[in-house]
Design goal:
By secondary structure, the protein is an alpha/beta fold. The protein has 10 helices and 12 strands. The protein folds into 2 domains: about 160 residues, Rossmann fold; about 140 residues, Rossmann fold. Helix 2 crosses helix 10.
């Protein structure tokens, strides 16, 4: 076997290893563009995350882009391993969801050295990281989401007597992740101007329904009869919190005001049912935005450093009868 054959065999073995270790799948549309994109996803912990992966896969398939997808199962080390496999396979563009903000410098330096552009999708890295190590971010403005949640609460409580305290608890997302940090910052900064608002406590639910339920049980135990508002950093944790409230004999949305983030179909249904009061949209449908940037970067074009999708706010006061199915 010649050197060319050996190189091809080695590349094939590497790809098989990636499939086995990282859950990769390679889509083969009928008419391929020749563009190969590596996509490292953090997991499949919620309807939002599953919808996000599907959006990326379908956008790639529509365009004839070959896609290698790795599921990190909520482990940063597996995500880093998948990115290194993409580098070794010499993909054209790398897309990944940073599970936390820190710990990416070494692997991104490796991608830069290999000449492979990197797109951050859904989550961001720390501000202290050298911005030349990645090309773009595509995803929500998490700080604005926290602001929108707080602004709803300000409107909701505007008619309360001036001396009425509003006691808040939080179910925060994965510790040290950009959505958890920035949603909390935007929320609390907006409420600082009104002394009625008191943050009683915060518990991390890791963006998971099960941990959201555990966290809400703990908050109810610590602050029995004191909680007026729950700010949940995502819908999945809100579902768990609602179960915990109902098991405690409380009426979610009435005894405790609930504000959530994401906009999954189940959350909209609960909003209609009066069990959630406000949902801040954070769309997972990022596939076309991501693939637009991937195609431009592969062609050597400049791209905007930040791309935010269009998002909105759903409240108990809205007429949601004409709202189409969410798709996630």
């Amino acid at each position: 076997m010649g050197k060319t054959g050996l190189r091809r065999t080695a590349a094939l073995l590497l790809f098989v290893a990636l499939l086995f270790l990282s859950g990769c799948e390679k889509k083969q549309p009928a008419q391929e563009t020749g563009l190969l994109v590596g996509f490292a996803q953090i997991g499949s912990e919620s309807g939002w995350r599953i919808g996000n992966t599907r959006s990326i896969q379908e956008a790639a398939e529509r365009r004839g882009i070959r896609l290698m997808t790795a599921d990190a199962n909520q482990m940063q080390e597996k995500e880093i391993s998948a990115i290194r496999s993409f580098i070794a396979y010499n993909v054209d563009v790398i897309v990944f969801v940073p599970i936390v903000e820190d710990g990416w410098e070494n692997v991104l330096q490796e991608a830069k050295k290999a000449g492979i552009p990197v797109i951050l999708s859904d989550r961001q890295v720390a501000d202290t990281l050298d911005p030349s190590l990645y090309s773009a971010y595509v995803g929500a403005d998490f700080h604005r989401e926290g602001v929108l949640a707080a602004e709803f609460l300000l409107r909701k409580t505007a008619e309360l007597p001036p001396d009425t305290p509003v006691r808040i608890v939080q179910l925060t997302g994965t510790e040290f992740s950009s959505p958890a940090l920035q949603r909390e910052q935007g929320f609390l900064e907006t409420l600082e101007r009104d002394s009625r608002f008191v943050l009683l406590d915060s518990v991390s639910g890791d963006f998971l329904k099960s941990k959201g339920k555990e966290g809400m049980k703990e908050l109810l135990r610590r602050h029995e009869g004191e909680i007026d508002v729950l700010f949940s950093h995502n819908d999945a944790m809100a579902y768990g919190a609602i179960e915990a409230m109902e098991e405690a004999g409380l009426r979610p949305g009435q005894d405790i005001l609930i504000i959530s983030v994401d906009g999954e179909q189940e959350a909209i249904d609960l909003l209609r049912a009066g069990k959630i009061n406000c949902v801040v949209e954070c769309t997972p449908m990022l596939g076309d935005l991501v693939m637009d940037l991937a195609e431009a970067l592969a062609a050597g074009k400049d791209v905007p450093p930040v791309t935010y999708p269009e998002e909105t706010l759903f409240t108990e006061d809205d007429d949601l009868s004409a709202l189409p199915p969410r798709g996630y």
